[in-house]
Amino acid sequence: MSESYDLSMDTCMRIVSMVHEASSRTVNVMGGGGKILASSDPVRIGTIHDGAKRIMSGDVNEIAIDQELAQSMQGVKPGYTGAVHLDGRLVACIGIGGEPSEVKPLQKMAALALRQELERERLALRERDLLGGVRRDIGDIAERMQVLSLNGAVLAARLGEKGHGFKIVVAEMRNLAAQIGEKLADLERRDKTGFVR
User: Fold this and answer.
1) Statement: the pTM of the whole predicted model exceeds 0.70
2) What is the pLDDT of residue 3?
3) Up-side HSE of residue 18: CA atoms within 13 Å toward CB?
């Protein structure tokens, strides 16, 4: 049985388009309950594919659907459909239309492409989360440096001439905190626009 996995529709459509362009075959990506999420035949999106439904329920791992079998199933045309696993979990299935024995190798390659794209997407998300955490930590350090430099400036002012050396260190801390803030702002702009202004 498949566990819930949030498939990116952009990713699914990108793989469908790529495989369809390369093979000129109908390509479908199905999720939970056999629902067609992305297809080279837009009319089929949102419909239920009985073969995919069986795969997603865990009954079978793949299914070859010939003309005779297709007539006995709902939302199905001849082709080959197989599971896509990620970290041992069934997350989707992908099907290629045509004579099952001819399209099975294409389906295997399409399943591999979809799995690799999902892995790449997951790693990118993990990296964004990690970088977000690092940015928050660095921002927190810069903020604390500002507070320390303010407290240090007050102390240096109380010491008068004896606090002159301390005043220089405090000013440098304040400058460093401001530079860190500017770099974090640059990174935020880069994230939003794709480049630094």
Assistant:
1) no
2) 45
3) 17
